[in-house]
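Final report, closing paragraph on structural work. Over the funding period we assembled a curated collection of sequence-structure pairs, and we close with a single example.
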Amino acid sequence: MSGQAAQWLCAFITTAFLQADGAVLEVSADTTNLDDLVANSEVVLLSFYADYCGWCRRLKPQFAKAEEKLRELNSKVLLAQTKDKALKKRFNVSMVPAVWLFVNGKPMYRHWAWEYDDVFDFAHSFDTMSQPAGFIFRSYIWLRSLYRFGIKAVFKSLKMEADHPVQVYAPYMLLPMLLFLLIMLLVSVVLIYVQIIQICRARRRFMELKKAA
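Its predicted structure, as stored:
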């Protein structure tokens, strides 16, 4: 058996064992080759956490619940977690919790996660949606999660309770706002294009008149 095949088999057995035991795969620079792990999994969500972090302790059971549900659905998405300082340094993770997305062995971007559905909806979309619908849906989930992770905390500091209208309806406005911004961007591009065409035509006419004179 070649060295590469042995590494792949080791990663597969470790993942299968931990998942069968009902636990989220724990990644460590000392015991797990992260490069092999993400290379042999189409999609990986890696959660960086710390034992002292209250938000991490809040997310950890939600992350495990999402992993269990995805496993029941035979998802192609692998959920893993790490508190390894060397891996945090490698990916410049200075704040936790931080959930990194890997696709086809490559790190893509950070996903904000706060609730169970922030993790499950985002991950499960890789099983149920193709591009561009998957990209649009995950962008919405990313914004919704960011709202919960950061903006909601600001609302709370402003003494806006959970039943405040802003708190209740703001998440449902994220997707319409995103679509509105995309439409406005497209309209702006079209208007600029039309303006450039008009300027070019006016310049061409001016040059023709100048030559005729």
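The two ends are 84 Å apart (CA to CA). Residues 3-21 have pLDDT under 50 and may be disordered. We thank the funder for supporting this effort.
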